[in-house]
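Now for a typical sample entry:
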Amino acid sequence: MLNYTLRRLVMAIPTLIFISLVIFLLLELAPGDPLADMPLTIPPDVREKIRLSMGLGEAMHIRYLKWLTNFFVTEPLYWTDALFGTDFAEGRQRILSFQTRSPVFMTIAERLPQTLLVVGSGFLFGLLIAVPIGIYSAYRQYSWFDQIGTFVSMVGFSVPVFVTGVVLIVVFSVWLGWFPSIYDTTLKVTDWASFWQQIRQMVLPVFVLALYFAAQISRYMRAAMLDNLNQDYVRTARAKGVGEGQVVLVHVLRNSLIPVVTVVMLLIPGVFTGAIITENVFKVNGLGQQLLLSIQGNDAPMVLTISFVFAILIVLFNLIADIVYGLLDPRIRYD
């Protein structure tokens, strides 16, 4: 397993470099100018100096190599200096945002906690809901519970999250006034009153995300359970007198989790990068909202860095999924 993990990590390096190159070229070839939002009264010579200060006067391949070096060398050195009090990164230029001229990773660090809190809670609740629903729906196939679960899953998967979010805002914020429609990122939890306010403002975005995640996971869970419930080993276990609970929750569930692991692992990177649409509907000051604002403002360093972090997370969690396969199924070997 260790050798397999090391091989996959080595193979991931050229894959990630190729992905970063593709993202960089897409941003370079896309229409738009990072100076477009600046006042037209700025003289051309001053505008050109601003462009040069942003590094836009250099050749395309030079800017890409500089970004790659900053991402893999300079930024880790800054993290090392912050942790251990060293000065390895002294004088080195960090990855700077075109819009704010501040380090990109500082913006990511500021917005990540909000994303993890809201999107992470939605994913966790969705997972906790989806697995039991998928198991019971498969065990009671075509029952009223299965029919309702299928209907809700289809609605959650088919209806866009921005439609679900707007409907919830209209019903529960505008009509009933139970929950706030805008997420207050400046709220500090210091007592029970502020804690309750934090819970109230999280209800709607967490519910929208939980429904979206649960709709996907429960369908995969149900399909995997149905496939394994009809296997020969299940009939053999029942013929030997093994209890129904042990058959379903131990033998069938363990084998059914193997394909579901892939879905869950591919959804986890979205927890870190944020739900772009949902964060913008509820005005959550997270990474998803930052990514959309950066795309609108032609902030190439911010878009490139966040997108590349997302790619790293996908590759990493694909590797974790393969390792979990070996733990769930003893037949899988990577030697």
About this structure: The two ends are 7 Å apart (CA to CA). The chain has twelve helices and no strands.
